[in-house]
Amino acid sequence: MDALIIVPAVLGWLAGLFVNYTSDVLPTTRRFSQPTCPHCQTPFAWADYLTLRACRTCRKARSLRTWLVQFVAVGLFVYFWLFPSNALGYWLGTIILIYFGIITVIDLEHRLILHPTSLFGAILGLVVGTYLYYTALKYSFLASMGASLLGGLIGFGVMFLFYQLGAIVARYRSRKMQAAGKEDDDEEALGGGDVYLLGVLGLMVGSKFIPDVLARGIILGGFVSLLFILAILLRRRYSRDALMTFIPYGPYFILAAFYTLFF
Predict the structure, then answer these.
(1) CA-based end-to-end distance of the chain
(2) Which pLDDT tens digits describe the chain residue by residue (263 residues)?
(3) R_g over Cα of the chain
(4) Contact 75, 25 (CB under 8 A)
(5) Element (H, E) at 10
(6) Which letter does DSSP use for residue 53 in this model?
(7) Any bridge partners for residue 36, and if so which?
């Protein structure tokens, strides 16, 4: 057992490299391309990039996020090797972990949920949801697929309503900025990508569990928002601009789905 632990550790390190790579290139090029230094835009040699070396041009070290992703990925891969999910199994579970990692990092850094990742997520979500209901909950195959599709529809529909409400808030914010003589930055209270993400998560957890994911994600996001407001007040930097700052909501729904699927 001790010797075999190297297997998930290596797999986790490779998964971390993939999450970091996609998070570095997809937001800027929208395709798999050669990574560049975020500081000086010099293309990395593949050997330097994969070994996490500093940029040879500007000498800037790799970001803290890069190292965090690597070690979190190794930790999760080892943990679920030792304590695999009974419902998902190890290999399907690790694919979900990689997908969640890509969505989380890109959304936190860029407030983006890209359409290609949503399309891939929809396919993955349907597979995961159908498998989960068929194997763990003992539904028939057609009923399992139906539960997955209904979960996706519920997640998408509820989030679409929140998106419309967020559009009203964004228009109010835009008018306030223009009245203060500031240029509108076209920020959205809730991005369209979040709507697709909840559709994907609904496909994964199905109709039985998507209400739990929605509730937990909203509560968690609201709690973090409250902490953000309290931090502003404690630092005595209260302002209308600070309170109109939008936060990425995707990672909180990812955490809620992660808990539901794995625990």
Answers:
(1) 24
(2) 566 889 999 999 999 999 999 999 999 999 999 999 999 999 999 999 999 999 999 999 999 999 999 999 999 999 999 998 888 999 999 999 999 999 999 999 998 899 999 999 999 999 999 999 999 999 999 999 999 999 999 999 999 998 888 777 777 666 766 666 666 555 665 778 899 999 999 999 999 999 999 999 999 988 887 887 787 777 765 555 555 566 778 999 999 999 999 98
(3) 20
(4) no
(5) helix 6-29
(6) P
(7) 43
Q: For the whole model, what pTM was predicted? A: 0.89
Helix, strand, or coil (residue 33): coil
Question: How many other C-beta atoms can be found within 10 angstroms of the C-beta atom of residue 173?
Answer: 20
To 5 degrees, how large is the angle CA 169–CA 228–CA 157?
A: 40
**Tokens 């949801």 found at:** 129
Q: Which residue has the tokens 């990742």?
A: 117
Enter the tokens of residue 160.
């679409």
Token pair in block for residue 169: 């808030």
As a whole number of angstroms, the distance between CA 19 and CA 73 comes to 9
Domain ranges of the chain: 1-83, 113-263
Q: Comparing C-alpha atoms, which of 196, 209, 124, 111 is closest to residue 157? A: 196
